[in-house]
């Protein structure tokens, strides 16, 4: 009876120790400084992360103005426009490219409403 109890505690202890060791082996997430990011640094980011970075900067800087409506497809077009500008001038400020793209989109939308 005592052996079973000891065996159970050994198994439970082993199971508890296993996830702790595994968590230590995982690398910490890479931090990206967006404040002074160049287009070159932005384009070096993984492709699946780029739209999230554009969305974060766009929202953080309030480049969208008072636009609270999301149009399907507009997000992909916006990201593609920013990536195109960054490809043309890789040393330019990434934040500036996002702001300029937003200003151009807002101006085009206002012109279309007239």
In brief, what are we looking at here?
This protein has 114 residues and is mostly helical.
Give the end-to-end Cα distance, rounded to a whole number of Å: 86 Å
Principal-axes geometry comes out as elongated
Mean pLDDT: 79
CATH architecture of the domain at 39-113: Orthogonal Bundle
Q: What's the β-strand tally?
A: 0
Main sheet characteristics: none
Provide the helix percentage: 55-70%
Count of helix runs = 5
Order of helices and strands: HHHHH
Low-pLDDT windows of residues: none
CA-atom Rg in angstroms: 24 Å
Could you say which structural class the secondary elements and strand pairing correspond to? mainly alpha
Beta-strand residue percentage: under 5%
**Would you give the CATH topology of the domain at 39-113?**
10k-s Protein, Hypothetical Protein A, Chain A
CATH class of the domain at 39-113: Mainly Alpha
